[in-house]
Amino acid sequence: MLTRRIFSAGLAATAIAPWVQKSAWAQAYPNRPVRVVLPFAAGGVADVTARIVADKLGEKLGQRFVVENQPGPGGIAAARAVLSSPADGHTLAMLTNGTAVSVGLFKSLPFDPLKEFTPISTLGLFDLVVVTNAETKFATLADFLKTAREQPGKLNVGTIGVGSTQNLSAELLKATTGVDFAIIPFRASPDAVVALLRNDVQLVIDIYAALRAGLSDNKLKAIASTGTARVEALPNVPTVIEGGIRGYDVTSWNALYAPAGTPPAIVAQLNGVLREILSDPDLKKRFTAFGIEAKPSTPAELDARMRADIAKWGAVIEKAKIPKQ
Q: Does residue 177 share a domain with residue 217?
């Protein structure tokens, strides 16, 4: 009888051991400052919003979350910095829809976002905005497309560099509508806006934050947004889909990832805290000012989003015959 009891106790201890181990991880984490590595320079929208979230994470978890900027093509430098660190939750990465684009844009991307990273949660979703010069005759996107059909190759759409989400969104618009217009890449958003004001290009597609000043000054006119629902900051501006172009959806996003092998308890803990943080009305208001919707997700939802965007943008890159880097 005693032997049987000892054996039963042993089984019970074995059964609860993984739970105890996971609980120990969760209780111990974080036990030092956490690095959040971004593939962008300081001062941009991704940087500002990441710092807002990092501050909130620090408040909730009792350790500093330090944003570290590692800009570079394809997010390669940032990815390497994270993947060279222990998978213990103390070094995290921001990956974005730009990461999904990079998979199709590079001949051989030196990291695999699906295999080498563990998804935690999205932080925010944001659509692009289609704008014209406020003095233009184009009141709607349909007006622009009608004229472009009547004058093939004569009208220009400005975006930032080739292979950016903005640039590929213009390529997707061209492919979806079958309309022939030229896509003109610029070094930076201000250059594209200046070209629009000079009428060198007739449309610009960019993020809301890059266009906000021109819209506020009534120098630019928003005629469409690229997601499936209207932008909260521009409630009177219809989506491209509302303009009659079915199947067109460009939703940008940023998200928090950990290196593969990070204990599931830590991933679950971070996901739970992010859900709480991203529902805070003050944070949501601060994100909205940049045209971003604070939006958490499950790890599985984030993984599905990354996979779908890799497939989507890979097809656009191939159809547009954009040379691989």
A: yes
